[in-house]
Amino acid sequence: xxxxxxxxxxxxxxxxxxxxxxxxxxxxxxxxxxxxxxxxxxxxxxxxxxxxxxxxxxxxxxxxxxxxxxxxxxxxxxxxxxxxxxxxxxxxxxxxxxxxxxxxxxxxxxxxxxxxxxxxxxxxxxxxxxxxxxxxxxxxxxxxxxxxxxxxxxxxxxxxxxxxxxxxxxxxxxxxxxxxxxxxxxxxxxxxxxxxxxxxxxxxxxxxxxxxxxxxxxxxxx
Length: 222
Hints:
alpha/beta; two-stranded antiparallel sheet; 7 helices
């Protein structure tokens, strides 16, 4: 992913102290953190659920999930070690330092090391930065840690059709997405094809009130 976007860059200790990680992961820290939590509650997340946060970053949503879930039921993976360190900083500041969490650095979207089949998965603003083969590979990895009743959710940028023009301005947030470069957009048919290629059953849920017009995809085994 190094040639895709700067997300792989490790932040310095001083940058973390200045909370620059909040902007590094896309900003809108409070708004999107709460939005994804409320969304997951609406989809049936309970305290007893085991949740995988894919591309968890500095725990923008994780802080909310960890506060809600039973101790030890939150799991997060990310490529950037410094952001995971920032996540621990955010937990301390939120008074959650004593909670048991499971965070793992991986470059391959691999959560199998936890030895858990997850009830739910959430991924916000991850596949918006990935090209098609990376998305399919990510979905293949998710399939390994799902059970027959699992529901995994991925946000993505959608376009109504493929355009000769590379750039497309999303309806909200003044975000310009691209077919050839990051941030990427895809049609609904493409996103569903990626999921089916990984052996998963997709359902595009559409608008979930994301401030930058990201849409939501649900993945299930059956």
